[in-house]
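Look over both lines before class:
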Amino acid sequence: MEMLVGSDWKEYFDLLIVQARKPRFFTDVSRPIRVFDEQSGSHIWDRVTKLEKGVIYYEGTVKQLQDLTGWRGHQVLYFGDHPYSDLADVTLEHGWRTGAIINELTHEIATLNNVDFKKNANWLQMLTQLIEDHQDCEDPEEQKVLHKWMTERDKLRNDIKIVFNPQFGSVFRTYHNPTYFSRRLFRVEWVEIIEPKTGEHMYANLATGECVWDPPEGVPVKRTDSNQWWELFDQNTARFYYYNATSQRTVWHKPTNCDIIPLAKLQTLKHNTDCSPAATSNQSTQTGELTGRGQVLSLSASTPQLRRKSSDLCRSSSFSQRGAEAPLYSNWHDSHLLPLEHFLLTNSRDSDSDHSDSGSESLTGHEPDNEDSDQSEGSYLPHRLTHRPVEYLNLPTAAIEPRELKDRPPAPMLKPLAEPPFQPEREADMEKFAADNLNLGGRGLFRRKASVRDLLSWSARSLQRPLLASSKPVARQALDMFRQVQMYMGDRKARPGVSLNSLLMEILGTAHAQPLLRDELFVQLCRQTTENPRRDSLLRGWELLTIALAFVPPSPVFQPALLGYLNRHRDPGFSKVFPDVSRWPIHVQVNHYATVACQRLERIGAGGKRSARRPQMDDIDSARKQIFQASLFGNTLREVMQLQASRWPNRRLPWPQVELSEQVLRLQGLSTEGIFRVSADVDEVNRLKGQMDRWEFSEPSDAHVPANLLKLWLRELYEPLIPDSLYPELHLQVGQCGNQIGSRFWQTISKEHGVDSTGRYIGNNPLQLERIEVYFTESDSNNYVPRAVLVDLEPGTMDTIRGGPLGTLFKPDNFVFAQNGAGNNWAKGHYTEGAEICENVLDVIRQEVERCDCFQGFQFTHSLGGGTGSGFGTLLTSKVREEYPDRMVTSFSVVPSPKVSEVVLEPYNATLSVQQLIENTDQTQCIDNEALYEICFQTLKKPTPTYDDLNHLISLTMSGVTTCFRFPGQLNADLRKLSVNMVPFPRLHFFVPGFAPLTASGSVAYRKLSVKDLTEQMFNPRNMMAACNPTTGRYLTVATIFRGPVSMKEVDYVMYDTQTKNSSYFVEWIPHNVQTAVCDIPSPHAPISSTFIANTTSIQELFKRIQEQFSVMFKRKAFLHWYLGEGMDEQEFTEAESNLIDLISEYQQYQEAEVDDYAPDTDEEEEIIEEE
């Protein structure tokens, strides 16, 4: 400075600051101003309380400069040389006037006048128009030409950009993609506003917030007209809307070809542009009150005299805030702020160390205008949305007290404006989530606590710690996952050879395996899509967020906050304004991503019907494609019909169902063995599925392919064709054992549904009645009657039930019995005594089925050891299978055990019964008396268990198995879906059930239940209700049903961990062979409980014991004459034994099977081809 000006250069300046370190001088709040010592070349640590001329100061912040000098707003004329930090920011945030010394201007002017540049720019403009005119071409040759044009256009765009600057192109770029700086140059800061109710004119400065009655002199003013729309902000939905003051019309979408006046920003500017508070503190005001929407707003109004006085002190008033009070002229208060915005504002003040003027604190949205479909780097720039949303009130004219023009209120009294369009309220409690869960740091000596805004804003840097405090146990994985997210978004360089899909597999695989990281992932994505200045990175982030919600859900705690974040970026009107995907501007694409993400969140989150699933490469590709191309699979039937309406508006049936059904018939599916049961080639099914999503169809060669795809389409419908509440079941209890078990079952579920012994509803939970029709029928007297048929071949059992606690609950006509009994003889129950009353029972069954709208199936309880339960029970299963072949048949069958056997004929009865169950039931729950006794002895510590104890255990298991049918939960299940998921091969439908917790009565007070404890009990062989050891076999499929207030995230984690640690006990050739359901309604037995259903090959142990005993007896023809005397043939015993041996062999075969065992033999295929 001495060389340029002279030794007295300090006299030319009122204030000298060195080492200001822009832009930190404008953004930091904790760097104090110090005096600079010219002798030592360092600063002095003494605190500076006032600034003096001639003294050189060191560092500091703009806040301290304003506080110590009082220089604010247009009082400051600032010259700088950086078009962003020196010009645009200080104008927006501090209201300074700015001057520019821009070296880039010379270079850009020369470039713009270059002949080659003009030629390329003109050709780019024409090429862009050609591409737009030929977007709809479908001819392959035309598409090739179009692709070449698009490639050339992208190259031209890049060449034009790097001519100016390789990183961000032209500094002065305008038109569709103006830079942040050029928008500041071309903006008209003063606008004329006409209040629609009174017609009064006022003039507002959009940059500083100043508001005056008279037009300012020497500056351009944007005049109002009928084509002027006001951009306002709705605090309920955190969205902008638009109001025309002339027509008084309000719309959500942004109007085109008109002038947009951003009044929302104007009304939320802070007091940085106001005069000194002391200058106006002595002004007295008189208060008027305006009423709207049931609340009173107090508005300050100065008298005309005071207005003239104050004009000498302050050029004009602004939308200011004094201390913690609400702005003087605004129609909002802190109570009207969105939770997240209020919380961010509070945190920014706290982190600013008593700095209450946090006018620069803001969230970032997307500017709807100034964007096109340009995909070039750096063409997207953020647009700030201020913290303070405004609640706009539509007041009647009569509410405003009339006055003469001279008595009108000062200009700052902005009248309440237009009411936003109606929008349903959405809950989004980000404030509470941030306060309770964000990992703000700040502990320890000299550790600075991060602000919420810092943690929720985009950053190209790595994380130093997880964003969520709950992620600390998996901190290393959380940090690695953030780096992978940055790689996917393009914010970090990826490793060589790493593809986007492989990154997705790693990210989603980690989130699926570690439920603790799911919320961490979603918070990281919210952070990286907030204030993101890079267009491609922003879109990649939204794509990743949308794909992630197809596989893993957030926790119920974070879900409302995530939903609120997504809703902030949605605008339903965009789908109508921008129907062409290829021409969508970026803000419309973000809106579309947010809309799809909301739908996926609704379906996979808490209360949804989908659960977390492990990502596969094909699934990831489908999830990405379905963002912009809706799929025929996985949606509701209504959505499928809407998709096909554009092609076939007159079709009444869904195209997938019709086309696939016709394919099955054309390929002779009706005569194909195992149709709809045998699995088809997975690749063929996926290929056909992809074709159908493109509305194409090529006829496969195998009928199993369309049959499997039809099942897949029906299974993946988000809402079943028939609601679960319309799927009633008919319960049949046969024989003494079956009736005892059935009666205890009805006692258990009646209590769960709030039904007393007379059938009256005495419960207090609406969910108890939501699906009560599955098992109960409501009578004309408003009593609930069990849908049950009670059968026995002797009257004693029926008399016992009638005299029991539920005797009056059952319908009297549904008691069907004979007089003689079966005498433990299977043949009597099946051929003679049972056959005599079989038709009577079927008549009762027909009457019950006819009363059901959408009958689901039958549920049997019986014993395989006695005569009635085994003989007559299996006769009824064959009859209902014959008469109702398309309905599900389930049985809870008590299998005899030699250790607790009471009937010598049990091996014969059980073998003959198993043969019938193989053919006539869809699923059989095998319950073993030996296992039940062991549970009572060892687990429940009962020295002398009774039949009532055994029946109680069985009823708890039956209640758990049927929970998904009777109550809503996070897995929409019915008998058929359970069968589809659990039965890989038709004959292997015998299950091992279990229940947890099982605790001795003396230990109940000491137990503390958790999901992990329940899972360990379920998989413990000692707690399974069939005497077989699963560790000696392998699980084909497993279903677990949890009840009570348990976290789905914890359930998924524990089940995955269990399966991983015990992978050798699960067959690897059935993917996703563990199904989980959660029902919020607890069992009366325990606060949380779980039911276990396993299709395991170890169940062959039960059948081996029966077969060995049968073989020993049948070899000597022992007791055979009792059966032959009832009309049976000896050949039936031989066939039954052979069928049982085959069943055992099948279980053994699949226990030893490996994945390669089912791979095609390539050598044989080559030989066949050569022969052909």
Summary: The chain has a mean pLDDT of 76. The chain has five domains: 105-170, 188-277+285-337+388-407, 430-628, 637-716, 724-774+790-1110. The chain is about 40% helix and 15% strand. The CA atoms of residues 30 and 501 lie 44 Å apart.
